[in-house]
């Protein structure tokens, strides 16, 4: 009886630790114990005890003023994860070349369940960074050009299941929130092997994406260019598709002559 209770208590501590990390991640500045306890719903003594353990592991830093911030260990772990994503390492030189050609932000995204996670980005240096395209940023599949590429690779039944699970929430008036509209868009993507985000994730931001395939022809990532609407150029699609094909070949996908 004692063992299940101990396991439950351990899981509860982990959940509380994660809630503290989530709150700290949303805070632009170091936060006090009082603020952290309030935002997580934890008793101050509980929050203090967990923060002390996290501080000793360098997951959290405690400042002299009695405030807390995310610790250096998270940066080390994050860099370790990034270093082990081979597709990111392989794609980056091609992304930089594309960036030099178009002069706008180039993004690399992978799928995790019902979301896109951005694993690499080159900044355009000419506009504010959009949150959704930060490295590590997430977004629902149907709201981004990269996400729609993954949905287009799914069977029709899987797309319908995705729509049921998520409810197709929208972010802007341009978001595809009806299954019929999404299916029509996915048909177009399958025909042209390129996807567009027309201010569907954020007003004023447009995006073009092409699929990256592995040695078995499976889509493993999406390559995209994002830019403010007033600088968007639909003609970038050709260069984006070409760069995505080059990354695919670097991953082992056979060239047209070998297929």
Our estimate of the beta-strand percent is 15-25%
**Global mean pLDDT:** 86
Low-confidence stretches: none
Approximate shape: globular
Counting DSSP E segments of at least 2 residues, the number of strands comes to 9
Instruction: Give the CATH level 1 class of the largest domain.
Output: Alpha Beta
Q: Output the number of helix runs.
A: 9
Strand order of the largest sheet: 6-5-4-9-8-7
How many domains would you count in the coordinates?
Answer: 2
Distance between termini?
A: 60 Å
CATH topology of the largest domain: Beta-Lactamase
Name the CATH homologous superfamily of the largest domain.
GAF domain
How helical, in percent, are the residues?
40-55%
Task: List SSEs in N-to-C order.
Answer: HEHHEEHHEEEHHHEEEH
**Rg from Cα:** 21 Å
Features:
Beta-Lactamase, 9 strands, 48% helix, 259 residues, Arc Repressor Mutant, subunit A, alpha+beta
Topology:
Elements: H1 2-26, E1 31-32, H2 33-40, H3 44-56, E2 60-62, E3 67-70, H4 72-83, H5 86-102, E4 105-112, E5 115-122, E6 138-140, H6 145-153, H7 156-166, H8 179-192, E7 195-198, E8 205-213, E9 219-228, H9 236-250
Antiparallel strand pairs: 1-3, 2-3, 4-5, 4-9, 5-6, 7-8, 8-9
Helix pairs in contact: 1-2, 1-3, 2-3, 5-9, 6-8
Structure write-up:
There is one protein chain. The protein has 259 residues and is an alpha+beta fold. It has two domains: 2-76, Arc Repressor Mutant, subunit A (Orthogonal Bundle), CATH 1.10.10.10; 85-250, GAF domain (Beta-Lactamase). Helices cover 48% and strands 20% of the residues. The chain contains nine helices and nine strands. The protein has helices at residues 2-26, 33-40, 44-56, 72-83, 86-102, 145-153, 156-166, 179-192, 236-250; strands at 31-32, 60-62, 67-70, 105-112, 115-122, 138-140, 195-198, 205-213, 219-228. The strands form two sheets. The chain has a six-stranded antiparallel sheet with strand order 6-5-4-9-8-7, with helices on both faces. It has a three-stranded antiparallel sheet with strand order 1-3-2. Strand 2 and strand 3 (67-70) form a beta hairpin. Helix 1 crosses helix 3 (44-56) and helix 5 packs antiparallel against helix 9. It is globular, with a radius of gyration of 21 Å. The chain starts with a helix and ends in a 9-residue tail after the last helix. The relative contact order is 0.10. The model has no long low-confidence stretch (mean pLDDT 86).
């Amino acid at each position: 009886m004692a063992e299940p209770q101990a396991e439950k208590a351990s899981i509860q501590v982990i959940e509380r630790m994660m809630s503290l990390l989530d709150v700290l991640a949303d805070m632009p500045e170091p936060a006090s114990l009082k603020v952290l306890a309030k935002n997580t719903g934890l008793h101050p003594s509980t929050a203090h005890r967990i923060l002390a353990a996290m501080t000793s592991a360098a997951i959290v830093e405690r400042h002299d003023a009695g405030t807390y911030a995310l610790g250096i260990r998270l940066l080390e772990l994050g860099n370790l994860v990034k270093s082990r994503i081979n597709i990111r390492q392989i794609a980056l030189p091609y992304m930089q070349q594309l960036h030099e050609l178009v002069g706008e932000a180039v993004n690399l995204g992978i799928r995790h369940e019902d979301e896109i996670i951005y694993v690499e980005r080159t900044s355009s240096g000419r506009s504010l960074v959009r949150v959704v395209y930060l490295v590590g940023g997430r977004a629902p599949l149907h709201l981004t050009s990269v996400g729609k590429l993954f949905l287009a690779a799914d069977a029709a039944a899987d797309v319908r299941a995705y729509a049921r699970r998520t409810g197709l929430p929208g972010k802007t008036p341009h978001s595809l929130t009806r299954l019929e509209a999404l299916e029509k868009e996915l048909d177009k993507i399958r025909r042209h092997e390129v996807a567009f985000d027309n201010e569907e994730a954020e007003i004023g931001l447009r995006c073009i994406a092409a699929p990256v395939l592995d040695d078995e022809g499976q889509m493993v990532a999406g390559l995209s260019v994002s830019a403010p609407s007033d600088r968007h150029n639909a003609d970038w699609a050709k260069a984006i598709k070409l760069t995505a094909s080059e990354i695919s070949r670097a991953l082992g996908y056979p060239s047209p002559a070998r297929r």
